[in-house]
Amino acid sequence: MNLGGSIRINKFGVxxxxxxxxxxxxxxxxxxxxxxxxxxxxxxxxxxxxxxxxGSIQAxxxxxxxxxxxxxxxxxxxxxxxxxxxxxNDPVTDADFRSHCVMASGLHRIxxxxxxxSEEDEGKQSCPDAKLFDLxxxxxxxxxxxxxxxxxxxxxxxxxxPLDATQEYTENLxxxxxxMVCVAIKGVPTIGVIHNPFTKKTVWAWxxxxxxxxxxxxxxxxxVKHPVVIISRxxxxxxxxxxxxxxxxxxxIIPAGGAGYKVxxxxxxxxxxxxxxxxxxxxxxxxxxxxxxAIGGKMTNLKNQDIAYSDKDSFLNENGLLATAVESIHEMYxxxxxxxxxxx
Length: 344
Prior knowledge:
The protein is α+β, with helices and mostly antiparallel strands. It has helices spanning 11-37, 49-71, 94-110, 166-170, 213-216, 239-247, 259-267, 282-294, 327-343; strands at 46-48, 79-83, 89-92, 115-118, 150-152, 156-164, 178-185, 188-196, 201-206, 210-211, 228-232, 252-256, 273-276, 280-281, 298-300, 316-317, 321-324.
């Protein structure tokens, strides 16, 4: 029995194992920094719109997580911001603030010079414990061919709605709730993201560049025999009478909450048009405006004027809106609306 035999070491094998260990250590030590560095541009005065699209999708989704989390609590901490012009209550909840902090702080960490307007900026919320995020390119479907495009940071304005349909949220009508991000370039809505926190479905589009995969399969019909118009359930104003005069006897009206939800119904062919006759905040409509433009639709005010979204413009769209998924349908009905207003 030989217990004194020597052990031969394979030098090549040791080399391979050492190399693999070094690669593993490098991967672990740099993995976290790679995702955050992904966002960085060499020039802080420029922004890559592809990366901003990715960040916008993540912001909407992360804000949605906060909205869902608060919905599980017994107390939403509902406050009132006052009354709308129509006399309806304008509530705000803990979910609005928490979503705002995640969305705005998350985007600002990645894009420090980005100009952001959020519905809850008015409350001047401090966000010391906001849950931040790094860019994750996988939020864009692998089949989406999204290009890199660099623009000057001074031309970019981001509009955030941390919780659209707050009134419905307080009534547990969660189907109407969305979180939204819109990127406007020189005042033109260019990138839009609408996320439903409770179904976890996200719709996004970048005008003339790319749209989220589900939108590519939806066929549009320009022949409208039985128009379906979706309107606000809480801010209807004179919209019902306008709709009946403009869209005819075969009209079907759907009252619903949330501007984001209404645009989604138009996008998915559940409504012919979204009609609103009174003032509405631009963070409610910018994302939908961008997405509709990207799929060949149109949104204007009721004077058939494009809605501008720069920081030099008012935060309020005073003159109502008409939104459709097909531009020719918009042209047909906006003419009728303008003619109808002239007759009165």
